[in-house]
């Protein structure tokens, strides 16, 4: 199935400036999607994305424009053409 991804809030810097892409996944697990993103898309500082197979604090996740906490977080089962938006809420200053 095809999953649309968007990165913003500075998170796109981990992806060499990539703001949007799509990936094909076999497994419908959101947790496995994050592992795939880490292994195949992140070009630098992978430790800023996942720790112990969980997203680092400060990354907001939207599933089809809805907060992932309302959708079951890691238990959410992906569907074809879902849009997952990952936004960094941490900013230096």
TrEMBL record:
Q: What keywords would UniProt list here?
A: Cytoplasm, Isopeptide bond, tRNA processing, Ubl conjugation pathway
Highest taxon listed in the record's lineage? Eukaryota
Q: Which Pfam families match?
A: Urm1
* Gene Ontology CC annotations of this record: cytosol
Regions that span the bilayer: none
GO:BP terms for this protein? Answer: protein urmylation; tRNA thio-modification; tRNA wobble uridine modification
> At which residues is 1-thioglycine found?
93
Primary subcellular site in the record, as a coarse category: cytoplasm
Give cross-link positions for Glycyl lysine isopeptide (Gly-Lys) (interchain with K-? in acceptor proteins). Answer: 93
Q: What is the recorded post-translational modification?
A: C-terminal thiocarboxylation occurs in 2 steps, it is first acyl-adenylated (-COAMP) via the hesA/moeB/thiF part of UBA4, then thiocarboxylated (-COSH) via the rhodanese domain of UBA4.
Identify the pathway: tRNA modification; 5-methoxycarbonylmethyl-2-thiouridine-tRNA biosynthesis
Compartment(s) of residence? Cytoplasm
Say which family it is in. Answer: Belongs to the URM1 family.
Function description: Acts as a sulfur carrier required for 2-thiolation of mcm(5)S(2)U at tRNA wobble positions of cytosolic tRNA(Lys), tRNA(Glu) and tRNA(Gln). Serves as sulfur donor in tRNA 2-thiolation reaction by being thiocarboxylated (-COSH) at its C-terminus by the MOCS3 homolog UBA4. The sulfur is then transferred to tRNA to form 2-thiolation of mcm(5)S(2)U. Prior mcm(5) tRNA modification by the elongator complex is required for 2-thiolation. Also acts as a ubiquitin-like protein (UBL) that is covalently conjugated via an isopeptide bond to lysine residues of target proteins such as AHP1.
Q: Tell me which PANTHER family the record gives.
A: RURM1 PROTEIN (PTHR14986)
Kindly provide the name given to this protein in its UniProt entry: Ubiquitin-related modifier 1
């Amino acid at each position: 199935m095809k999953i649309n991804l968007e990165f913003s809030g500075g998170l796109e810097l981990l992806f060499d400036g990539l703001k949007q892409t799509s990936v094909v996944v076999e497994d419908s697990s959101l947790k496995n999607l994050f592992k795939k993103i880490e292994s195949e898309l992140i070009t630098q500082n992978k430790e800023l994305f996942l720790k112990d197979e969980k997203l680092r604090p400060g990354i907001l996740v939207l599933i089809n424009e809805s907060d992932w906490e309302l959708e079951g977080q890691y238990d959410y089962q992906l569907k074809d053409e879902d849009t997952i938006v990952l936004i960094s809420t941490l900013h230096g200053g």
